[in-house]
Amino acid sequence: MDLEKRPEPDGCLVVAIRLPVRIVALVLVVPVRLAWDALTVVGRLVYQRVLVPLTRVFVVVPAVWLYAYVLTPLGRVIAVLGRGAGVALGWLGRALFVWPWVALWRFGVVPAGLALAWLTRVLVVVPAVWAYTYVLTPLGHAIALLCKGVGRALGWLGWVLVVVPCGWVYAWLLTPLGHALRWAALALGRGAATLLRWIFVVPVLTLWRWVLVPVGRVLGVIAREIGAALGHAWRVAGYVSLAVGRFLGRLLRWLVVDPLRWAYRSVLTPVGHAVRDQVWRPAIRVAKEVRATVRQVRADVRRALFGTPRPAVGLPEPQVRDRREPGVASTRTLDRSTTALTKD
């Protein structure tokens, strides 16, 4: 027994619709997909090579500089000024608004309130409690008993004069009349429902079952095949676009990248190495030698004109000498002069 659900074979109508729809969709979608992929590549290059560097140069760097060298010092100055102004305003506010009201409350309002509360208790609360306990409470109990008796009498009269006649009318008059009206309404409703069913429901069901459902199925098949054809054409156009992009990339590599790489490796790199080894390094070496010679000549001229400086008496000779000046073994004297003016 085959437990797997096998797909139902497509009918001839589906097959007849599928092939032309897929051909038309492929012809229409391939140029759109090629243009879309080209725009995607160009947009990515523009974003990575133009917009990001321009944004970094014209937005990020000025914003960082403005934040670091303008807004941060200005914010610190404003914070310091605001802290000082807050302390001064807080002290001034307490002196003008808090302390006078606290003193008025403590030494004026509280004693006056205590005195007023004592007078109110003596003149109002005590007489009111006495009147409630010994006058209003007995009077209220008497009024409550009177109202309870009157209420019982009125309730008996209402039962006899209203409830009993209404119950008789409901049981022996309204109930039979309601049942008769209900039966008539049910019979009339069933007849109207049958008439409406044969006039409206049956034709609508017939139209739905034998006209709209088959037309809808055909339109659904057409719409499904158009969607499937568009999806298939989009995928095929993607493969075509990928092949075209690879061909153009390989062509660009053969015509531009590989010649530039060969020129860089075979021409510019040997020329650069030759320039570095034959021109730049000898020039640096000659410049260093000329600099060392100039320093030596300057040291010899200084020593010939002014002599070697004599160390101070009682101080040890410094261990670190000027690297540009040659060291002297002993102190210079007239007998051991090396200048042309003092030689014999």
How many helices? 1
- Major β-sheet, in short? none
Uncertain parts: 1-7, 318-344
Distance between the termini: 132 Å
- Average per-residue pLDDT, rounded, comes to 80
Strand content: under 5%
Helix content estimate: over 70%
Helices and strands: which structural class?
mainly alpha
Radius of gyration: 57 Å
Instruction: Summarize the helix and strand pattern as letters.
Output: H
Number of β-strand runs:
0
Shape: flat
Task: Write out key terms for the chains shown.
about 350 residues, mainly alpha, 1 helix, disordered N terminus
Q: Can you put this structure into words, describing what you see?
A:
By secondary structure, the protein is mostly helical. The protein has one helix at 12-306. The longest helix is centred in the middle third of the chain and has 295 residues, at 12-306. It is flat and about 145 Å long. It starts with 11 loop residues before the first helix and ends in a 38-residue tail after the last helix.
